[in-house]
Amino acid sequence: MLKKEVIIMGISMEVGGTEKALLNYLNEFDPSEYNITLLLLQAKGQLMKMLPSNISIKELTEYRNEIRYYHNSFKKNLLYLWDKKDYRSLLRYTSNKVIQKIANNNLYILEQVAGNLGKELKKYNIAVAFAGPMDFITYYVLKKINADKKIQFIHFDIDHIQFNRYLVQTLYPDFDEIKIVSKQGKHKFEKKFPELSNITKLWNTTINVTDLKKQALEGGFHDKFKGIRILTVGRLTYEKGQDIALQLLYKLIYQQNLPVKWYFVGDGEEKVKLKEMAKTLQLEEHIEFLGTQLNPYPYFNDCDVYIQLSRHEGYCITLAEAITFEKPIITTDFTGSKEQLINYPNSLILNKDDDMVTQVSQFVSEVLIKKQYSVS
Description:
Number of strands: 13
Strand content: 15-25%
Largest sheet: 7 strands, parallel
Helix content: 25-40%
Shape: globular
GO molecular function, one term: glycosyltransferase activity
InterPro entries: Glyco_trans_1
Protein name: Glycosyl transferase family 1 domain-containing protein
CATH architecture of the largest domain: 3-Layer(aba) Sandwich
Number of helices: 16
CATH class of the largest domain: Alpha Beta
Organism: Jeotgalibacillus malaysiensis
């Protein structure tokens, strides 16, 4: 029997929730039935070493040269093309920018970026735009890859990201399936784009529980702190809400007198700002930034409470991982959190209308009492 040819397109394999979901997705394909090609915009990241050995990895190297049209300023691109004496591209780029401004969409710039890239010569049975929604990957899978079936993934809450309605209405009908990672996220998408509801499907992220628990035996916290260890795992970015965590920690310590220490696993653009904030709030002894960890599971295993204060999510992988380790969980009410915790008793979804400090301090106090009782 001939194997089916599948190409899956992503951004990179840096440590992140979408990338972990991609690893899980790749493991769903039986190597005896599928030949898998992973096409990345950048073939880099700590998770590269965790990719299944049976897949073929390709990098879209030309992307780095062409993406300047998308990210650089209009003036910088004009000067670049003028210096190259590439007057044809200069005229096309200028025209596309004018049309983009008038039409209020990026389709014409996408056409410019992808237009200079060659098509995938191989014919595939299935092509997947996994890192979604990302406009370029969506466009490339639809226009540059020859496949019998095409699938778009949506991993984020579309109410909280830049989501070009015109692009969705123009491009997404050409997909055979749109896979969305949570029921609530699917509901939001179908409400906004009812004409696409016939091709939307729920995709449940799978987690290898046995593998996670095996990895959890490899290490853990190295300090001698005896109080309640709070853990948060995720990129240090605004949407993940670590700044909210620091404000909350200040009140738990200096107003509620709780013996807590908060550990953050992850790295990102907000790291310097968060460290300065921690210093200003006199939290340096009560907080630890552990950086990116390829294996964060010993920390999941050893923490007393897992807290996720994200401003928005599509489906929170780290929340699912905390559930795997049966930890007490506190989370904000983002997309997917209720369905993830619906049958999980030892959890608290914060009510935005009530005082966060009161809710969290009561929950953490109960955890502290149980911990003290178990020790005695």
